[in-house]
Amino acid sequence: MDIKAYIDSGILELYVAGALSEKENKEVYDLMLQHPEILQEVLEIESAVIKLTSAAAQPSKTNIFSQIKEKLKFGNKEVKVVSIERTKYNWMTYTGWAAALVVGAGLLWTINQNNQLESAVTTAEIEKAYLEQQIEEAKTNLAATQNLLNVLRDREIISVPLAGQGNFATTYAKVYWDKKTNSIYLDAQGLPEAPEGKVYQVWSLTLDPLTPTSLGTIDDFNTDDNKIFAITNANESQAFGITLEPEGGSESPTMEQLYTLGVVASAP
Amino acid sequence: MQLDTLVSQFQKKDEKAFEALYNMYSASMQGVIYNIVRDQDIAEEVMQDVFIKAWNNSASYAPEKGRFFTWILNIARNAAIDKTRSKAFKNSRKNLDAEYFVDILQTSESLEDTTDAIGIKKFVSKLAKKCIKVIELLYFKGFTQKEASEALDMPIGTIKTRNRNCIKELRTIVLE
């Protein structure tokens, strides 16, 4: 069979057009299977016709295929076909929103972090201030203790033990008298807490004749930690005594409430 | 061959294969249908009918009866022609007899952006009236060779060779 003459007859063009009889169609099909060049010719004719007919198509107003799928009730999962332009728009939009969300979340996180850090800084500052205060107190305490130690070690200082009297025999106190500075340090650790409404009052005494001079009340006795009190004393004291008096103190000592008493050694 | 596989998948009701075939042939069918009905809304309506019919009657296609393209082309032409014969269509449309696919190609603005379209416009502009008529009847209208021979008052052999030469010219333009 002359393949070239067959092709040139124009039958293949009619085959693609659908203008042949059923018998002729079967004939072309069989020859196509036997001769690749006939198949190739058919493919090229078909391709050219598709391009020509496509050129007469008008742009679609609707998405025809998605409507076809809808009418055929194709898998509910993918009923709508989104056009390319729409996809592009969505892609941009979603990406934009996603980016905005990420940035927003990042911003919130940063703000939160900042707040936490600020709060931490504030806490640290408060702690620092508290620690500074403690150091200051410790320094003050140290200075006071040092001072006390100096007083105790000073040769010039007169030490006067005050012994418990009468009902208060178990109590005791001690007075350190610095004559140069006219001050005494009263160590009252051996006294019980003052009852409510009462205060301890410190007296300077001269013995002949017995004359008490008030050195004042110890109003902060119960709250003081080390129970050492510095008191001014410019008197020529021969003895010191401590009585419990009503709040505000008394003009003269209440002898029934005399807790401790001690005489100054006449050594100097 | 890939097309054979697609078609047999389509005949097994594979939706993806159907979509692939739609994408291959939908523009061509739209051109053919529009050329017959000359109304975009109606053309889109017919398009839906054609592909739904193809899906529902996929079993009726067999390769030995012809090309798959030719099979769907027949469904499209018949559906479009049926449409023009409906009473509603006749009432709303004027006589279309004098119109050929060439008018669409020469006036359509949607063609401007593809190189194929430029080539086809060029082709159409220098096509002899005899080519236009023969292509119109055989491809766009679905005339058999005998019907075409009667309509153009030419022997079947002349129709065949003339059509062969016209398509050859088209191929040199669009397939290079």
Inertia-based shape of chain A: rod-shaped
Distance between the termini of chain B: 23 Å
Structural class label of chain B: mainly alpha
Q: How much is the average pLDDT of chain B?
A: 85
Average pLDDT over all residues of chain A? 87
Please indicate the percent range of residues of chain A in DSSP E strands (runs of 2 or more): 15-25%
CATH class categorisation of the largest domain in chain A: Mainly Beta
The appropriate CATH architecture of the largest domain in chain A is Sandwich
Question: Count of DSSP helices of chain B?
Answer: 10
Work out the helicity level of chain A.
40-55%
Main β-sheet, spatial strand arrangement of chain A? 5-4-7-8-1-2-3-6
The H-level CATH homologous superfamily of the largest domain in chain B, spelled out, is: RNA polymerase sigma factor, region 2, helix turn helix motif
Helix/strand/pairing class of chain A, anyone? alpha+beta
Order of helices and strands of chain B: HHHHHHHHHH
Compute the number of strand runs of chain A.
8
Summary keywords:
heterodimer; A: about 270 residues; alpha+beta; Immunoglobulin-like; 3 domains; 8-stranded antiparallel beta sheet; 6 helices; 8 strands; about 45% helix; rod-shaped; B: about 180 residues; mainly alpha; Rna Polymerase Sigma Factor, Chain: A; Arc Repressor Mutant, subunit A; 2 domains; 10 helices; about 0% strand; globular
Report what the structure shows.
The complex is a heterodimer of chains A (268) and B (176). Chain A is an alpha+beta fold and 268 residues long. Chain A is built from six helices and eight strands. In chain A, strands 5-4-7-8-1-2-3-6 form an eight-stranded antiparallel sheet, with helices on one face. In chain A, strand 4 (198-207) and strand 5 (210-218) form a beta hairpin. In chain A, helix 2 crosses helix 4 (36-54) and helix 3 (22-34) crosses helix 4. The termini of chain A are far apart. The model of chain A has no long low-confidence stretch (mean pLDDT 87). Chain B is built from ten helices and no strands. By secondary structure, chain B is mainly α. The two termini of chain B are 23 Å apart. Chain B has two domains: 2-92, RNA polymerase sigma factor, region 2, helix turn helix motif (Rna Polymerase Sigma Factor, Chain: A, Orthogonal Bundle), CATH 1.10.1740.10; 103-174, Arc Repressor Mutant, subunit A. Chain B has helices at 2-11, 15-37, 40-56, 68-85, 87-92, 101-107, 115-126, 129-140, 145-152, 156-174.
